[in-house]
Amino acid sequence: xxxxxxIEEEPSYGYEMxxxxxxxxxxxxxxxxxxxxxxxxxxxxxxxxxxxxADGPGPPRKYYRIAKNGKQRLKEWKKEWxxxxxxxxxxxxxxxx
Length: 97
Description:
This protein is of the alpha+beta class and 97 residues long. It has four helices and three strands; from the N terminus they run H-E-H-H-E-E-H.
């Protein structure tokens, strides 16, 4: 869900996404775990991959952008997350009735 949310903001490549997640405090997410997730999302039609030539020497980078199906799925995931996080917060804070 976090990867899809990042891609919705702007097309990105794997290493860039790992850095953005780390900046948000999600240091446990490694670049090596991102690529299998991106591949699964691409096969599922949630994102599209495309290559951009490097500014200098080096190979082109593969960027990802959100697909129409990805936007819909992200909307659903956000609703599910909101319900789950609300319930967890109530339990953790001892406000469960």
